[in-house]
Amino acid sequence: MKKLKNKGFTIIELLITIAIFGFTIPGLVALINTINGLNDKARDLSVLNSLAENKVESLRSISFVGINNGVYDFSNELPKGISSPKSATYTVSNVSSALKQIDLNISYNDYGTTRTISYRTYIGELGVGQY
Predict the structure, then answer these.
(1) Which of 60, 73, 83, 95 has its CA 20 to 30 A from that of 31?
(2) pTM (2 decimals)?
């Protein structure tokens, strides 16, 4: 009598494989979702930092004399991709007769948490750092 060789997988091998996939697939999905969330947060922060830098540079280009004291809202310049509620303001005040202080604040919704980015810079009558 010729002995038959079994080819294929046994039920136990298949159950072990299914169990391994059952534990690893949800973990991988959670990891991918976490990475995507971190990527979105980094993108928002990068975009808002660039916006703040551009706003400060545009104020510097106006010059000391052209910048008036007060609070100014530039929320309409925030990108549409940033989650609401969002707001952006800058405050101009005199430190001395030849130096103005600019305080810039941007608030936005970061996955249910309100985040605020704050910057402070100075603009001198004779130019940056020359007062």
Answers:
(1) 83
(2) 0.72
